[in-house]
Amino acid sequence: MNNFGGDWTKSKIEILVEYAKAYLNIMNVYANRYNWKLLYFDGFAGSGEIIRNDETEKEFSDINITIGAARRIIEIENPRAFDEYYFVEKDFENFRELEKNTKKAFPKKKIYATHDDCNKKMLDLSNYLRNPKNKNYRTLAYIDPCGMQVEWRSIECLKGLPVDMWVLVPTGLGVNRLLKNNGQISDAWLERLEKFLGLDKDSIEKYFYKKQENLFGEIVMIKTEDAIKKSAKLYHTRLKSVFEYVSNAFELKNSSNSIMYHLFLTSNNRAALNIANDIVKKYNN
Ligand SMILES: C[S@@+](CC[C@H](N)C(=O)[O-])C[C@H]1O[C@@H](n2cnc3c(N)ncnc32)[C@H](O)[C@@H]1O
User: Does the pLDDT value for residue 65 go beyond 90?
Assistant: First the structure.
């Protein structure tokens, strides 16, 4: 596992599918007993069937197509299916394919697909679930961006809700690349980091940089050596301020063994944590 980009693309989906089956197995009992509705929410759904690897993935990939998560999740019938599916995709071409591969391919299922920004739809999801009329909904969310599109406020708005969420964090490919070695980060990149981490400039600098005096008595910034691992640790802590439980991370590495992303499961349910940690351990090995 994990030797090629192709492998981690697949592993990511296998982790999700394995967890979804365990989730549906447990929820099946409660859904019958308490009339719960099981919702699947995918904020970065892609085309739904075929992943055409983007430039980043192509660089590390030995294959360029694989079956997408949306389709894999819709096809789950055992132990039961989800009651409703909600897919979000921002790219119009992908969205048109997504509709074809989800709504149109499974006309008997309750599937919604929307051409929009995930941040907006995460807020809509939170408002929907907070409505007392919808208190019987239980949600499994999958947040699978390729970059730093997810704003911290979109994660934060899910606080206290019955949502289990797999979230892919671009620690190596995103955060680490924006953290310049000399600390001279442009305003645009800083703003991006601030929105992504939900932290201000000073907190980000303090966490990732040391201040040191150089030969000429000037104060210079030195970036921490393990910025990728530190950003995963930081994001884990941030997630823990929103959800009661956050799993260990599945590390997605490129062919040179550098970490590109960390994948976490968040939940307010202890059982979810144990299941996710078991799955993550298996795939990290
Ligand atoms: C890594 S791919 C998703 C792959 C998909 N989860 C799968 O397994 O088949 C990320 C997708 O998110 C879309 N995207 C990028 N920014 C977005 C945003 N702000 N909101 C929603 N979708 C976005 C991209 O067009 C791309 O199709």
Answer: no
